[in-house]
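Structure, all two chains, one model.
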Amino acid sequence: MSKQALQYLSENREHLLDRLHTFLSIPSVSTDSVHKKDIKAAADYLESYLNEIGFDRSEQQDTGGHPLVYAEYNQAGPDAPTVLFYGHYDVQPVDPIEQWKSDPFKPENRNGRLYARGSSDDKGQVFMHLAVFEAYMKTEGKLPINVKVCIEGEEEIGSENLYKVLHDKKEQFDADFAVISDSGMVAENQPTILYGLKGFTGIEINVTGPDHDLHSGMYGGAVRNPIMALNHILASMKNEDEVVTVQGFYDSVEPLSENERELIKNVQGENYEESTGVRQTVSEKGYSAKEHTMARPTFEINGMYGGYQGEGTKTIIPSTATAKITCRLVPGQEPQHIQELLEDHVYQAAPSGVTVDVKKEKLSAKAYKVEPNHSLIKKAAESYTKAFGKETVYVRMGGSIPVVEWIEDIYNMPIILLGFGTPDDRLHSPNESFPLDSFDKGMETLVHYWENVK
Amino acid sequence: MSKQALQYLSENREHLLDRLHTFLSIPSVSTDSVHKKDIKAAADYLESYLNEIGFDRSEQQDTGGHPLVYAEYNQAGPDAPTVLFYGHYDVQPVDPIEQWKSDPFKPENRNGRLYARGSSDDKGQVFMHLAVFEAYMKTEGKLPINVKVCIEGEEEIGSENLYKVLHDKKEQFDADFAVISDSGMVAENQPTILYGLKGFTGIEINVTGPDHDLHSGMYGGAVRNPIMALNHILASMKNEDEVVTVQGFYDSVEPLSENERELIKNVQGENYEESTGVRQTVSEKGYSAKEHTMARPTFEINGMYGGYQGEGTKTIIPSTATAKITCRLVPGQEPQHIQELLEDHVYQAAPSGVTVDVKKEKLSAKAYKVEPNHSLIKKAAESYTKAFGKETVYVRMGGSIPVVEWIEDIYNMPIILLGFGTPDDRLHSPNESFPLDSFDKGMETLVHYWENVK
């Protein structure tokens, strides 16, 4: 019965916040070997908390790097679904420390927010799940669902060992669906279903002309300028209407349905002038900025360089020019295939007199999407709305979460992203915080969700 | 009578080379204040040499920077022309010193070449003129022409003060024509008339998009990428046929005459693969590489940068992108006008969603050209051919020599470039040298020339 669990959460709020403070006080910065002991302490904390809650099995597993906390609960009965819960206990470094208004590892409540490194990303959100499990066990003596817990300590350093672990222990992690709370809502108190993430792929283009920088007076007119050659190549890949002109790029893109356009329309748009300083948004012809960022593929030059970069002039024809490109992909686009299309285009567009070399970036990911009317999604939306008292909006995101693609890739299970962060949480920055209101309503959402799916 | 002067030069070769060694031994590096005394010593050397030769007036003049050596000879009579002779006594630094096979300031003869910093650029060539004047004075007691000598000490640091001096002392430097020996021949022992230089002008383009680098997942699709915007602008300025597509760019370019195309055809082309490593030359449609480098304007991107330049990927939309552009100009093209055409084009080509700013480079110069059939040029060619025993070729150069433009600008007098350097002289590099053969034949050329023009 959800009532009892909710009552427990409400009556034990101070106790639970105290426990959370203890967890947040451990400086589990994964990137710095100075914090190796703290990483271990955070894993210990989770292992013993899960034990105490009453999980059948709770242990630290070796990954080759920082330990992964694994726990299982199997007492919900054979008819209850099994959920794989993923989170991470490591946090970002705190530099620049002088910009923090309070100690990042002495959690402080100010103006309705809990300030601490990891309060939002992701220790705070991990803790909410554990607190909800505690509430069920303390009141009903059991959980409504079977659970496999996977909390890693390397997310902030690229989850270096996770893919291998997930791949090698298929039986251990297999479940009916996965739940991840490591994302956010589009605005504070605006329940948000994140039902899609983009994939990505990238290439680097190197153009070589002469074997050293040349005097532009002596050789201008005889030698192709590699920077200009690269300009011609790149300008042929996306036009001024923001349409990618690489042949086949859009071929397998699923068209945006009227239903999705409607869902996107319902999301309150970002104030781009405020957040980016641009006075005018520019997006693919035929699509709004919201539609393009959420649901259409993109092509970006992330960096470009060649020749002289100092003050004033240096009259040279440079020897080389380089551009780094990444594309954000949508469902249907195969990263390796898109890389090949980009590569083919570059070689075909290369003008004479220069040598063009394309390097394919190794890291790439497929896009992820759950149908917004999937029953697990609908139930999540209902749970959000019930807890927050507000209609849930549906969004897709331009970014990528590697673990989502990996779970999808290895297990092919639905992944439900139940995020409770807000745009003001300052993840990875000084003064990270999390609204206490989200803490309460988030836990309530989880209770409703387990009741809904059990 | 030229015979006597030539005989003197031949009989006194060792004596003259000794004098030249002394001059080259002075480390008159203009860029380094450590060498201030040496700069003075080189100016002293010239002042006293000119005095000794018998110039009516020889003195060091204050420029605000390093002194300028000025001397006059007015005894050739009212019918003889007055020549302004320009050269420079300062030299480039010698770094990296460890790459020199002999001390840069202890001149050494090896394999028919004189090795020393300044042996070609420009102390060696200045000395040849003084030696010829000495020869005339010692044998005939007079020079065949009236001479104004202007030897500066700041050429290697951009002739910082020369324009003002030339401008402020118009009467002092005024002459019938100018002679400069600070350039080279297209090949050793290939007498070469350099009858044209290109001018130049430049702009810098800055494109600003968002006010900070953005996450390409969150904002890709909403914000114009400044690097791509710059690519579209630049690709619209020159096409793949190497034709500049900026409106009006070629409007006032003098067409290349059949006569000039013939002159250019006679010049042995450079082996571009050897000197630049490119396997294929690329030049303006309708023109050969020789024609384009010598006699057609060019447009080069000297440098371009924006966004991430490190290893691997960084998935950002950069905040800014910059390109540095210079054009080499031909006679008829007004640098300021061309700058304006470039600027107008850039602003018109700028796509929406970014701010584009054009900075006009201050330093610019008009092209310079003497008609190849000008009598002073024809006489120079005859003198070269007589001394070197080989037909003289006519070339124009893609580079610029600022003093040429200044003399042209202020005095509007013909300027004859009598250069004797060779492509192997390694100007500005370790192991600078000058062929002793060029030393002898160059002085002979000068004697013939003075006889021809007197």
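Chain A touches chain B through 81 residues (CB under 8 Å).
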